[in-house]
């Protein structure tokens, strides 16, 4: 926190190629900091930190409005089309320590597509990746961000109906992270209204965690 009238939250986005990870980061920031487009290969090859401008109308404390600042670390996809698994892990681990080593990480967002089924191997790989990066308390600092929620809605699924029909693999993953999840409407992802909706949900999860942070340290290996 910069002062009593401001709050900064630190987020990191993780995900497989073409899940909308970088686009989700842009939505959270209200910017186009991260390169994001359709591609037959992984787009993001290195970690980068994006910072939002002052955001108002999102959070209040003791009756007074706080200016919110959002920092998002965008990361290479895992697995990656041109980087080895070790290269991705080393790059992300170093970036987490560099950017959030002192202030800490409030929430890691595992980005999945709501319009595609989650296979057991993909879920296991994602969990192993985040667990190795964040350590034994990863479950306390991780939430699932489901992108392309608009496509699920177009297919006739409300959020409740979607989860009721979800695969056992996705439900098991949500159970691991204590049912922390957020839906992102890609059709509205660039609007202030959608950003405010998603940020309020992010803040709700952070508040549930009593604003604790995960300290990201450099590996001793």
UniProtKB/TrEMBL annotation:
<dbReference type="InterPro" id="IPR045058">
    <property type="entry name" value="GIMA/IAN/Toc"/>
</dbReference>
<dbReference type="InterPro" id="IPR006703">
    <property type="entry name" value="G_AIG1"/>
</dbReference>
<keyword id="KW-0342">GTP-binding</keyword>
<protein>
    <recommendedName>
        <fullName>GTPase IMAP family member GIMD1</fullName>
    </recommendedName>
</protein>
<comment type="similarity">
    <text>Belongs to the TRAFAC class TrmE-Era-EngA-EngB-Septin-like GTPase superfamily. AIG1/Toc34/Toc159-like paraseptin GTPase family. IAN subfamily.</text>
</comment>
<dbReference type="Pfam" id="PF04548">
    <property type="entry name" value="AIG1"/>
</dbReference>
<feature type="domain" description="AIG1-type G">
    <location>
        <begin position="6"/>
        <end position="221"/>
    </location>
</feature>
<dbReference type="InterPro" id="IPR027417">
    <property type="entry name" value="P-loop_NTPase"/>
</dbReference>
<dbReference type="GO" id="GO:0005525">
    <property type="term" value="F:GTP binding"/>
</dbReference>
<keyword id="KW-0547">Nucleotide-binding</keyword>
